[in-house]
């Protein structure tokens, strides 16, 4: 049975303000919420920490998160966020993510296989979230279920910069 532990502690900032720390650790089961779907998977070694929380929400808290993902992948998140006004800057890295495992959770007209890795930074801005960084997929194959449409030993996208509705990629390497 998956279990999560919650730890809440308090302290004082260097300025003397009361601050809090929330830590969640353990493992979790994620259920597919789509109608008629019964998919579920386990997230192992889950750890989420928000440190430096203050009652006003005006000060940035340090965020860290990590987890072992199904299929041998890993998630690592580091950054800061605040509630008032809403703002965040987080670096998210995923490694060894098996695309075939995640395919059933996306309604796409094609199927993907391969292993993905990313190193992305997410910033909130007045005009919406902005994502920058790089992504690599190794051993990628795209098919329509009956035939292979495309394949590459490695596909690397660097200089990603996306903010809805615009996106650019500085370099594509095959």
Secondary-structure blueprint of this entry?
Elements: E1 4-12, E2 18-31, E3 40-54, E4 61-69, E5 73-82, E6 87-98, H1 99-102, E7 111-125, E8 128-143, E9 148-163, E10 166-168, E11 171-173
Antiparallel strand pairs: 1-2, 2-3, 3-4, 4-5, 5-6, 6-7, 7-8, 8-9, 9-10, 9-11
> Mean of the pLDDT scores?
91
Roughly what fraction of the amino acids lie in strands?
A: over 45%
Helix tally equals 1
The helix fraction, in percent, is under 10%
Order of helices and strands: EEEEEEHEEEEE
Cα Rg: 19 Å
Describe the structure.
- The structure is a single chain.
- The chain is an all-beta fold and 174 residues long.
- The protein contains 1 helix and 11 strands; from the N terminus they run ββββββαβββββ.
Distinctive features:
174 residues; mainly beta; eleven-stranded antiparallel sheet; 1 helix; 11 strands
Quick structural gist:
This protein has one helix at 99-102; strands spanning 4-12, 18-31, 40-54, 61-69, 73-82, 87-98, 111-125, 128-143, 148-163, 166-168, 171-173.
